[in-house]
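This part of the workshop introduces the protein records we will be handling. To make this concrete, we reproduce a full record directly below.
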Amino acid sequence: MPVRYIYSLSWGFQQISTLAGNQTPSVFVVEVLFTMFITAMGLLLFSFLIGNIQRFLQARGSRSFENSLRGSDIEQWMSHRRLPDDLKAKIRESERYNWLATRGLNELMLLENLPEDLQRDIRRHLFKFDKSLPIVALMDESILDAIRERMKHKTYIEGSRVLVRGGLMDKMVYIVQGKLESSSEDENVVPLSEGDVCGAELITLCLEHYVLNRDGDKFRIPAGKLVSKRTVRCLTNVEAFTLRAADLENVFSLYSGLLIQNSLVQGAITKESLYPKSLFRSRSY
């Protein structure tokens, strides 16, 4: 009975598998058991492969489904607002590039679920703008971590204008991928690419504000200084991280004590500032 059962089980494995299907049964039970073991392992590994492929397709399908739903909502919204065709085309291109850049993944939510020290290490790896801005490199690491924490992911399509000459300079942009050009009134064009920063004047302006205001006097940044003197236009699709002026002011207000005590930062502000140096000396401790 054991031999008959083993041969019957071996025949059953051959029927449900393509492995060892063309072999003639052996007269030795050990060889039959070995063939059954190989066939069973092949079926097991094949089932694992099918399961992994199924999970992969389901994950891709769910994200594609979410993207299609979002696209349908945007199309309905554009039709409801009766937007012109050229504006609709730009919105579709922006959504398409944003999907390609993020793959439907919410990076902010992903970082929030990680431990704080790991979040800090990731942001330090992503944002290395302190190497290109000398005044930022002089700040304490805690201030830089606070600045990195408030930076938001942003995408721009080809032809978009990040800053406009004569407009409000309300953000600083750290370029991750893409090419831009910055042009001034005298047609001086400066190319920008990965690792560059535009709108870095905000840092100097905010530092001036808090150094001059550290004794409690009411001091406001002149409106003329917040006006952009250059136009920054995207030559290609651009992926970047932006930092709003309000967030930057909030960081400097929280760490004003460290900024005031840092003589190197004060020296850099005095060197780059448009305010008279005597005004800084009159307010120094």
